[in-house]
Amino acid sequence: MIRASHPDDAAQVVPLIDIVFEEMEIPALQKMAKKDLYPVFEQAFLMKDYRYGYPQTHVHVNAAGAIDGILVGYPHVKEAHIDDAFQPLLPKVGLPEDKELFPDTETYEGEWYIDTLAVAENTQGHGVGTALLQGIEPLLAAQGQRCLSLNVDQTNPRAEKLYTKMGYQKTGELMIGSHRYNHMIKDLA
């Protein structure tokens, strides 16, 4: 089942977000022990306007009632300020408040951006990612969104194969942090 996330999902969602943090190799976050990192992002998850806040998150819930996948996204028009709410928490992850954890532009005008798609390791390859991608489309189309986008690390051909299968097409390349990504879009119209 796919549903919008709720504030009480924080403890289950944050480890899934961390899968992407690990892949991105963000130095400030890599230095932190999980026992210190997770409470910061659980607090951030409660922030309605933050990139990884619960309103931007949809979850896949398995038959046992556990969250085993997440899709985090937002429209391009929110990107410029999507991390503002996190600024006061930056010192808790070892950065000064005037820095940015995610300074790179990741999306373009007119796009609804899938920032994060993460699936628990024990359920990868079982259709959870596909279900999240398929499940979000009618919700966004009903809101009037016409173009979905995402960025896939060039070192992750398995993910790119899934996105291509789901109808996404590469439109360019960009750097996010120290990794090169393929920018992919899918028209909903």
Automatic annotation (TrEMBL):
Entry-linked SUPFAM superfamilies: Acyl-CoA N-acyltransferases (Nat)
E.C. number(s) listed in UniProt: 2.3.1.-
GO molecular function: acyltransferase activity
Residues annotated as domain N-acetyltransferase: 24-189
Keywords: Acyltransferase, Transferase
Record's keyword annotation contains Transmembrane: no
Protein known as: GNAT family N-acetyltransferase
